[in-house]
Structures are given as structure tokens and as C-alpha cells.
Design a protein that fits this description.
Elements: H1 3-7, H2 11-27, H3 32-59, E1 61-65, E2 71-75
Antiparallel strand pairs: 1-2
Helix pairs in contact: 2-3
Length: 81
């Protein structure tokens, strides 16, 4: 699959392909050359997924209603435990 085709994948499609590759590699039944090619594709899929997640994170904002009933937005942060 070419890089251009990879970039057109949705996050869900990319993660599904990545999971499939991982299962195939973990099975140990893949020929060495095929395993190397699959690993290289997996790296590209992982990078694509990370990029899409980061992009989504940048788009998420938290809506807050102030005491005077005004709506404002702020950066959404995940609370630490």
C-alpha cells in the first residue's frame, strides 16, 4: 500500500490493519521478507494513528458556563488520578 493510500485511511481502518499485522507477526508463521514488509507497514500505520489522535486532541475544547451564564471554551485536559 502506498503512503498516499495510507493517509486516506480513517483512524479505525488504520488501527484494524495494524492489529491484523500484529496478530500475523505474533503467530510466527510469516516468512522473513513478508514479516519485514509487514513491520514497515505497521510503523507507518502507527504513525498515522498517532497523527490522527493528536489532530483530534487539538480540536477538542471544553465548554464551560460561567457564573453569569456565559459560555466560554478552554483547552480540554485529562484529569490526573
Amino acid at each position: 500500500m502506498e503512503d498516499k493510500q495510507l493517509e486516506e485511511l480513517s483512524f479505525e481502518e488504520a488501527i484494524t490493519q495494524l492489529e491484523t499485522i500484529v496478530r500475523e507477526l505474533e503467530s510466527g508463521r510469516t516468512k522473513l521478507d513478508d514479516a519485514v514488509n509487514a513491520y514497515e507497514k505497521a510503523i507507518k500505520l502507527k504513525q498515522l494513528c498517532e497523527s490522527k489522535l493528536k489532530s483530534a486532541q487539538l480540536k477538542i475544547e471544553k465548554l464551560e458556563i460561567t457564573a453569569s451564564d456565559e459560555v466560554k471554551t478552554s483547552e480540554f485536559t485529562v484529569p490526573e488520578n
